[in-house]
Specification:
The protein has 509 residues and is an alpha/beta fold. It is 28% helix and 12% strand.
Length: 509
């Protein structure tokens, strides 16, 4: 990107952004006296970020070489074409093939080395462009940058109460508490944990856990939650939608997670968000407003696990797949990836890093947003195969049908890893609103903003379609997937308020 273009695009003053940050911090509210400046797109031409799921180069590939999943470890600086690698390795190389293996190597304890809206030099040092990233303490510098009920009928009925005992493993920790405008007689939504929680924090939060928890939440909270089935996966698993708030509200927000198999901490995150929203529905507040008031005007739709087959495969191996035909096709994926030089790992280890659905299709490259220009795996694979056509898969069809069934105010797509918020896409028709949401999320999560240079993603499609929807992709976690349980507390503390923040934004716009 030319320097004069960067200067032309810069539309806010750094001092003004810092004033907004300090004002919000001193008042304790996301919305405290905050002016939303015009959003500036981060420099992104050729930029790569560790963990980038929405990039032009998939997180599993580099120019000039195929990814290799192996048994060893590798090191090296994150240079051009660097990528996120497997669960126990976060190494990258300047060119050639990243190696996913049993060992581990990382830059700075596994933290991403490339900043938001930045590109990397050969030595791995980030080059911060327009709309840049963060201050030394991790605090973001802020830039800034739209009814009816749909879907199936509720299928979750009375359940069995709660899990019986146990306390939350979560501290109230980070985030921006509502100390400045609490509802009289009520409590701040973020001030205390759920007593006797239904959703138990676990390293492998499974499809069966989710289905059981939805039944229990429906039983415990009754009319505050509606549960629908929006589709069925290749392996016969239902795709669930949980609606928090008034299903007949004027405005609707969509939050989905678990579209990539090995990123299975994100379904746990959004299920905990849902549980907190239900627990504090009638007695909590956010930004000085009762949650019940926000949720009367804005319904929040959670799709906790878009890719249940792939998640089951990554968590528990081939035996978790019910269909014999699918098991054979997954074995064929392995044979193909071995032949193409994409893996040298043992089969069981290969499955741990599975990212696709049960047919070997990367669901976040299967939407009609530049799909035809995607260059990834030439055949079904553990990752980076875009499918035979846009929306070829039942999981992406279910999301697309849900999106096309009503008017939405905003979408949030949860991925891992990188601690990044991807907010923009070429041809984005709702750039200003997407940027405004991103500015608020930068303040509340501490994550950095970056544009998106890839294609085929859910957010990309929703931003460019005929009736576009503002939205973001949030990458959680600081090490490679599958994320260890040690990552969860920080992820929760940064993201527990996201649904309420986006709902309030929708209510006010």
């Amino acid at each position: 990107m030319a320097i004069n273009k960067m200067k032309k695009n810069r539309r806010y003053l750094l001092t003004g952004a810092l004033v907004a940050v300090m004002a919000a911090a001193s008042s304790g509210s996301v919305y405290a006296t905050m002016e939303i400046p015009a959003f500036e797109a981060p420099a992104q031409e050729g930029a790569e970020t560790l963990g980038q799921e929405d990039s032009g180069q998939p997180a599993d590939s580099v120019p000039g070489g195929s990814p290799v999943i192996g048994a060893g470890s590798s090191g090296g600086g994150a240079g051009e074409g660097s990528s996120v690698v497997g669960a126990e390795s976060s190494s990258a190389v300047e060119s050639g093939s990243p190696v996913i293996g049993a060992g581990s190597s990382s830059t700075g304890g596994g933290s991403p080395v490339i900043g938001a809206g930045s590109s990397s030099t050969g030595g791995g040092s980030p080059v911060i462009g327009a709309g840049s990233s963060s201050t030394g303490g991790g605090s973001p510098v802020i830039g800034a940058g739209s009814s009816s009920t749909g879907g199936g009928s509720p299928v979750i009925g009375a359940g069995s109460g709660n899990t019986g005992g146990g306390s939350e493993m979560i501290s109230s920790g980070q985030g921006l508490p509502d100390t400045g405008g609490a509802v009289p007689g009520g409590i701040d939504y973020f001030s205390e944990p759920v007593a006797n929680p239904v959703v138990a924090v676990a390293e492998k939060y499974s499809y069966e856990n989710m289905v059981s928890d939805l039944e229990k939440l429906k039983s415990r909270y009754g009319g505050h939650i509606q549960v629908n089935v929006i589709g069925t996966s290749h392996d016969g698993r239902n795709l669930y939608e949980a609606v928090l708030g008034n299903p007949n509200a004027e405005k609707h927000v969509l939050i989905h997670a678990g579209i990539h198999a090995r990123e299975y901490m994100t379904p746990l995150l959004v299920m905990k968000q849902l549980e907190y929203g239900l627990e504090f529905y009638d007695r909590g507040s956010y930004g000085g407003q009762p949650l019940s008031g926000i949720l009367q005007q804005v319904a929040v739709h959670f799709i906790p696990m878009v890719n249940p087959d792939g998640i089951a495969l990554s968590q528990f191996g081939l035996d978790a797949i019910r269909s014999e035909q699918l098991r054979q096709e997954i074995q064929q994926c392995y044979a193909s990836d071995v032949a193409l030089g994409r893996t040298s790992a043992a089969f069981d280890r290969y499955l741990m890093y599975w990212k696709a659905n049960a047919k070997g299709v990367d669901l976040n490259q299967n939407f009609p947003a530049g799909w035809e220009v995607i260059v990834g795996s030439p055949a079904p694979s553990y990752s980076s195969y875009k499918g035979t056509s846009p929306l070829s898969e039942p999981e992406t069809q279910a999301l697309a049908n849900l999106v096309n069934g009503r008017r939405w105010s905003a979408t949030v797509s949860y991925h891992s890893m990188g601690n990044i918020i991807y907010w923009d896409y070429e041809g984005n028709r709702v750039q200003q609103a997407s940027g405004e949401i991103t500015s608020l999320l930068e303040l509340s999560t501490g994550y950095r903003a970056a544009g998106s240079s890839g294609h085929g993603g859910f957010k990309d499609w929703t931003q460019i379609k005929e009736d576009p929807i503002p939205g973001v992709t949030i990458e959680t976690g600081s090490v490679a997937c599958p994320l260890p349980l040690s990552e969860y507390e920080d992820i929760w503390n940064r993201n527990k308020m996201v649904w309420a923040l986006v709902a309030r934004y929708a209510m006010e716009h």
